[in-house]
Amino acid sequence: MADLPLWSPQELIAATGGRIEGVVSKPLNGVAIDNRAIAPGDIFVAIKGENHDAHDFAASALKAGAGIAMVSRTTEDMKDAGALLIVADDPLRGLENLGIAGRQRSHAQIIGVTGSVGKTSSKEMLKVALSASGLTHASAASLNNHWGVPLTLARMPRETAYAVIEIGMNHAGEITPLVGMAKPHTALVTSIAASHLGHFASLGEIADAKAEIFSGVEPDGNAVINRDTPYFDQLAAAAKSFGIRNIVSFGRHADADVRLERLVLHTECCCVTAKVMGEDVIYKLGLPGEHMALNSLGVLAAVKVMGADLARAALALATAKPAKGRGVREHLAVPGGDILLIDESYNANPASVRAALSLLAQAQPKKTGRRIAILGDMLELGTQGPTLHAELAPVLDEAKVDLVYAAGPLMANLWAKIPAAKRGNHAPTIAELRDEIVNAMRPNDVVMVKGSLGSKMGPLTDALRRAYPPVSKDV
């Protein structure tokens, strides 16, 4: 089986109902939707997005090495460039059908992961933990939406033993079709928090939307739910309503099936003592922060119910590393020394900002170094946005932050609560603060960057890396 390509031309036709024009001359061992990241033999899917139609890039993808391009219309340039899989509908539907076929042929134990915060970090930890027991396939980056889920399923190797599928949403009803494709044996809900409140009337409604993940769980499957969330009973009832009898909880709660017994926090890792369904487990987690430690309990709960090796999984968690933009630490050389950059730039909501500030609080600047928080707007919070931003002011004090830079109209509500001694600057966009922030860095500073994707905080971390080269340093 390992010698077979990911997909054969015949399987593509059967899965999508399309037809092939031209000659497929390469083994089809990957699936891609970005023509800028083509590997030899990829199936390039020409999805039409909000800003671009990937049909315009199909020919270039083929010239870059793609084995075939899935398209709904053709041009002479495409035909000249290579083989085409022509589907009747939008290629997105073809990708969905390919993902469904990938799921149907798989013998893997599959887990679906959702939650307001902690999805991607838990997914990455699950990948590390389950890999200790067999070949594990997981969503890349944060591919958890209407094209990310089928893409992950379509990429799943034939011989996969375990698969971790991240499933996200920002509206009610979005998870149901995605979990219907993934059909997991286990569903993990990390937490319920104030995220996407602009599309929901309450956190209870968010819990209902996250509970849609239980609708697609396979018969005799499992639900793993955070016991510490106030919405545990609501989530557990939803799981039962979909016929799930095996519900396992995790957290600090005294009744949790996987319970935190002791936690020692370090700047780069955690040491955890837990009771895992009656079994004492002590392990090192290669990620700092209480929130990461609690997420790791959900990971071990999932490992246990999926029948993987718990001891090997716990040992493997020592090698877990932060995902890009989610707490990656890097020392950058500045004149006279170096700074520590904590890159939390991927996304933000009130819960994740608090968690990021707790990481900043744990950091110990040396000598005259400062704790610097650079914050961008938390988006999609609806009418509660201004209040939720202002409520971060005491959290900054608790984290002993010395200096704050804030960007965006919503962050103005926090800025108004910050004492003058802590104020760096505020501007409508982070781009307007970039040069000032870069020039403000001093040796031994610890700098944390956090904001929603739409706040574009990632380019600031890139600017800091361009200005100050990374250095290798043991911390």
Structural write-up:
- By secondary structure, the protein is an alpha/beta fold.
- The protein has 3 domains: 9-96, Udp-n-acetylmuramoylalanyl-d-glutamate--2,6- Diaminopimelate Ligase, Chain: A, domain 1 (3-Layer(aba) Sandwich); 106-319, UDP-N-acetylmuramoyl-L-alanine:D-glutamate ligase (3-Layer(aba) Sandwich); 328-471, Alpha-Beta Complex (Protein-Tyrosine Phosphatase, Chain A).
- It is 32% helix and 22% strand.
- The protein has helices at 9-16, 58-63, 76-81, 91-105, 119-131, 148-154, 175-182, 203-210, 232-241, 290-305, 310-316, 350-362, 385-390, 393-398, 411-415, 434-440, 458-467, and strands spanning 19-21, 30-32, 42-45, 68-71, 84-86, 109-114, 136-138, 162-166, 186-189, 222-226, 246-251, 258-265, 270-276, 279-285, 328-334, 337-344, 371-376, 403-407, 423-427, 446-450, 470-471.
- The strands form 3 sheets. A 9-stranded mixed β-sheet has the order 7-8-6-9-10-11-12-13-14, sandwiched between helices.
- Strand 12 (258-265) and strand 13 form a beta hairpin.
- Helix 4 (91-105) packs across helix 6 (148-154), helix 5 packs across helix 10 and helix 5 (119-131) crosses helix 11 (310-316).
- The mean pLDDT is 95.
